[in-house]
UniProtKB/TrEMBL annotation, chains A, B:
<dbReference type="Pfam" id="PF01565">
    <property type="entry name" value="FAD_binding_4"/>
</dbReference>
<dbReference type="InterPro" id="IPR004113">
    <property type="entry name" value="FAD-bd_oxidored_4_C"/>
</dbReference>
<keyword id="KW-0274">FAD</keyword>
<dbReference type="InterPro" id="IPR016164">
    <property type="entry name" value="FAD-linked_Oxase-like_C"/>
</dbReference>
<dbReference type="InterPro" id="IPR016171">
    <property type="entry name" value="Vanillyl_alc_oxidase_C-sub2"/>
</dbReference>
<dbReference type="InterPro" id="IPR016166">
    <property type="entry name" value="FAD-bd_PCMH"/>
</dbReference>
<dbReference type="InterPro" id="IPR006094">
    <property type="entry name" value="Oxid_FAD_bind_N"/>
</dbReference>
<dbReference type="InterPro" id="IPR036318">
    <property type="entry name" value="FAD-bd_PCMH-like_sf"/>
</dbReference>
<keyword id="KW-0560">Oxidoreductase</keyword>
<dbReference type="Pfam" id="PF02913">
    <property type="entry name" value="FAD-oxidase_C"/>
</dbReference>
<feature type="domain" description="FAD-binding PCMH-type">
    <location>
        <begin position="34"/>
        <end position="212"/>
    </location>
</feature>
<dbReference type="InterPro" id="IPR051914">
    <property type="entry name" value="FAD-linked_OxidoTrans_Type4"/>
</dbReference>
<keyword id="KW-0285">Flavoprotein</keyword>
<dbReference type="InterPro" id="IPR016169">
    <property type="entry name" value="FAD-bd_PCMH_sub2"/>
</dbReference>
<protein>
    <submittedName>
        <fullName>FAD-binding oxidoreductase</fullName>
    </submittedName>
</protein>
Length: 457, 457
């Protein structure tokens, strides 16, 4: 099949690339392990162009894989069924920052980091803060991205007021708006959020902003052993101190990050750490919460409670924390896992993973968002042959996902399902839920052309 | 058609009532104007019974109208197409309050007021606070109920972690769970929330709780004239003071409430008021916000800023505010409207409504949630004949909904669409959106038996 006539939909021929001229990176995700194939790669610059392409694809029944920066970790942007790759990164304008309604209207290709900086210059704040800052807002919406600040501020879903979405047949839907409340029929907006491009192509978003907190600080709690550290997390959560983030990390994991960035944590003699941030407008009030934390930390066996505010130390700590995935990847291929369990099960889950590591010999670096039960694992390949790696990985992942189900957890807290986690979702989810998802998918995309075979078969 | 065999599904014959034995109240909503008809009224006591009834209804293609306390305002619980009314008010157990995960697991018939009191006794807090406290949690979820505290805390949707739902064919789906984050496929949970019983029957909910704020106070800002008062709302919003509620109300409306409850506002010489609440754990910190409010209020033309904390005065003010709808209804039939506009358009909308009132002679008592743009109107019948009332009501409502659309608003902020607002949704919404809703509805309820003809035809 050739895609005759596709090029006529886009006025600039450099924005339509065919077949073997398509660079490999457009056929994969950020990990680059899964590769798809495509007949065409298109860079639309307007909703009109997206609509025209979808009409064309609909008429010719051609699969379309939307993508932003391609930073996803689960193969959502892999064009597994061929067809057209729709790269929205040129639709990257911030159309409006509306200080009266605390909203911004953005195109999907706006890069998260740029957007965060822009609104902060205006005294505003966009709380969703997934680790990957070069992702696009459109991508964040498609996976309902989370991040460290979710403990206090929630996830991407909580900041989407309105969406413009191009449907499978090219029609353009406006969902929600600048309004705060909405009880006006079925929430198509919420259905789109997190749907990984399987229901529509996001071409515009109205996002909620808040006023930028004036003050923030971090507190580092070192622990003598893993067990005490993990168990302390729940005490901290119960303490109701309104922290922005609660991260748990073992010293051996920190050591990887320290080596990678060439810096050191301010407190070395520990086996594990809890790292918290607090923010607000009133420093005194924040310190009151920190004082309460000190008491809880002491009672929970913390060796100290280091308050980190301005300057080098806080930068160092967060630089090391931010570099953990890259530090792992610098040493070995890894499989990222972002299981989410109820917050009071984080400790049990992390302990289970540590035991599993001991038992199987497969290194599983665990860290992440203890405060919201979203435990990240890097399953490390190390020196394994491809065959051994696939066998071992399969085994430990099956155990990890089973344990998560047992604890009332879910397959993904923020990365999405895409291609890579399909089999785990299939195993963990009730078949009825997958059946419902398929029915809803087909009701809005009857020809199954929008990112087909993602999330479910 | 007779419903042979239905009674055998429920062990207690007193819980299945047929035909003319069904009390009228089960055929309507709280307003009682719209009346449906039903062959049977069933009071299930378990998910199993709900499932059995849905299987029966599915096999026989019988419409089913779920209801809780029947407090809805838009005819959502009116069995317009006959069939079975499914009253869930006996499924009213609080199954668990889990302090570790800050969740409660409840059956749908739990009454909001009882639940709020129960969790507050445990030092916890369920923020959604719609005006009607005798509503059930299931009903609140079905309409995505909002309320005054939405300015700070959000709406019902924001507090639903998981749902158990019986589908049209009787199958039972578990959506979400105790987890905080979820990027595990299409969000069927969010699709169910606000769907007014058209997609499934809620039989269980896991709701999010927060720690109960230790302190709260209210501030009353009186204004000399309507215009100054309304315009001040936006300055207050811009002030970023994290209020729990921002209510705007005219003196003439307050006067109705004062007469009704036999009490008086603490500041009489005003044409309009802004009433705010603040909460938190630290009274000093709250007072800092109040001090900032004082400055904004003064600059915005407020005559005073009365801080109301404990005791009679604050009770009086909120008793009057809470009685406004009933005060209107004591005098006349009224049509409730809960249009939502962007927060910076509240003033323009309220001014438009006041002009419309002048022009048409139809009294439209406006008050409500200025802080989140959810303006409530009571369109007052007064002494009109039925014919004149229908004509006048139609005219002013058409104008009000058109103005809302012009301002980027939506048909309903918290009441839902049901039967009464269908025509306004149809006019305001893009036909594409309604088409999408219908497609999604039919994908999950192909025989169209679940609360048919609600939201859309």
């Amino acid at each position: 099949m050739t895609l005759n006539g596709l090029e006529s939909l886009i006025p600039d021929s450099r924005r339509v690339i065919f077949d073997s001229d398509i660079e490999e990176k457009y056929l994969s995700d950020t990990l680059g392990r899964l590769k798809g194939r495509a007949k065409a790669l298109v860079f639309p610059e307007s909703v009109r162009e997206v609509s025209d392409i979808m009409k064309y694809a609909y008429d010719h029944k051609i699969p379309v894989t939307p993508r932003g920066a391609g930073t996803n970790l689960v193969g959502s942007t892999v064009p597994a069924d061929g067809g057209i790759v729709l790269d929205l990164s040129r639709m990257n304008r911030v159309l409006e920052i509306d200080k009266d309604t605390f909203t911004a209207t953005v195109e999907p290709g706006v890069v998260l980091k740029d957007f965060q900086e822009l609104v902060e210059q205006e005294g505003l704040f966009y709380p969703p803060d997934p680790g990957e800052k070069t992702a696009t807002i459109g991508g964040n919406i498609s996976t309902n991205a989370g991040g460290m600040r979710a403990v206090k501020y929630g996830v991407t879903r909580d900041y989407i007021r309105g969406l413009e979405v191009v449907l499978a047949d090219g029609s353009v839907a406006e969902l929600g708006g600048k309004v705060v409340k909405d009880s006006s029929g079925l929430s198509l907006k919420h259905l789109m959020i997190g749907s990984e491009g399987t229901l529509g192509v996001i071409t515009k978003a109205i996002v909620k902003l808040i006023a930028k907190p004036q003050e923030s600080l971090s507190v580092l709690l070192p622990f003598n052993d893993l067990h005490t550290g993990i168990r302390a997390v729940l005490n901290v959560i119960r303490g109701n101190l309104d922290p922005t983030a609660i991260e748990f990390v073992e010293k051996k994991v920190v050591a990887l990050g320290e080596e990678y960035v060439g810096l050191a944590f301010p407190y070395q003699d520990a086996a594990a750490y809890i790292l918290l941030t607090f923010d607000g407008d009133d420093l005194e009030e924040i310190y009151k919460r920190v004082e309460k934390l000190r008491i809880i930390a002491k009672e929970s066996g913390a060796k100290d409670a280091l308050v980190l505010r301005d300057g080098e130390t806080i930068d160092t700590v967060w630089k090391i924390r931010g570099a953990l995935v890259k530090a792992v990847e610098a040493k070995s291929e890894q499989e990222p896992v972002d299981i989410v369990v109820p917050i009071n099960k984080s400790a049990e889950f992390i302990e289970y993973i540590n035991d599993l590591e001991q038992k199987t010999g497969v290194q599983m670096v665990s860290f992440g968002h203890a405060g919201d039960g979203n435990v990240h694992l890097c399953v490390v390949r190390g020196g394994r042959t491809q065959e051994q790696w696939e066998k071992d990985r399969k085994e430990v992942l099956a155990s990890a996902y089973d344990k998560s189900s047992e604890l009332g957890g879910l397959t993904s807290g923020e990365h999405g399902i895409g291609l890579s986690k399909k089999k785990y979702l299939k195993k963990a989810a009730d078949p009825l839920n997958l059946q419902m998802m398929k029915q809803v998918k087909l009701s809005l995309d009857p020809k199954n052309i929008l990112n087909p075979n993602k999330i479910f078969d």
